[in-house]
């Protein structure tokens, strides 16, 4: 996550999903995987905020994001946290920056310390951990000490949350992967955690953004029902009209 992404069309879908879960009793802990802004055009898909008809999905969220996006370069994730956009959520907003050093051991030490702080900060009063890295997860053969490694979550980090008793959901995108490679990517967590149950929701407004859930078996039925109900709202593939469908469930 970067501050420059706030208010982007992808943000609208992301918070729409998390708000629904929170309002149905899921206690969410957010690890932003916060990284430095860059000079790219990423995060500039905000024209939807000029069309008030887009508020149909969640008017409170829409106008909150509109106000925050109007701050331009001054907007930060603290605006999201303080606005109660995700009700009753806990946040870990310590930036992750390992690229300032070229020493791989130092990078790993910085990352390990950061991860342990996140685990501790989000341990209390949360049941679902949302990880929001820029690009999803690293290929299992690559270490987080690679250049720009802070833009990714690792399967090991996600597994640590799961083993601590939390369910997890994390941001990922298909990018240019073939369908076969995308199926492998969606199954990464399953390789590390054989008992985990996977649910994948994809937000198709703007560029494709997917949210991969890793659910404990005993919680699966509850989450499956919640996801079904979410997709029956205006956000979902089974909503009345089916025009500009934002979210779909993947197999």
Strand elements, count: 7
Relative strand content: 5-15%
Low-confidence segments: none
- Side by side, the strands of the main sheet go 2-1-3-4-6-5-7
Q: What is the terminal separation in angstroms?
A: 26 Å
Major sheet attributes: 7 strands, mixed
Number of helical regions = 8
Radius of gyration: 17 Å
Basic shape:
globular
Average pLDDT score: 92
Succession of helices and strands = HEHHEHEHEHHEEHE
* SSE class: alpha/beta
Would you give an account of this structure?
The chain has 251 residues and is of the alpha/beta class. Helices cover 33% and strands 14% of the residues. It has a seven-stranded mixed β-sheet, sandwiched between helices. The longest helix has 18 residues, at 104-121. The protein is globular, with a radius of gyration of 17 Å. The mean pLDDT is 92.
Kindly list the characteristics that best describe this protein.
7 strands; 251 residues; seven-stranded mixed sheet; 14% strand; alpha/beta
Brief characterization of the structure:
This protein is of the alpha/beta class and 251 residues long. Helix content is 33%, strand content 14%.
Secondary structure blueprint with pairings:
Layout lengths: L8 H15 L4 E4 L27 H11 L7 H6 L7 E3 L11 H18 L6 E4 L23 H9 L3 E6 L6 H8 L1 H5 L4 E7 L5 E7 L4 H11 L16 E4 L1
Parallel strand pairs: 1-2, 1-3, 3-4
Antiparallel strand pairs: 4-6, 5-6, 5-7
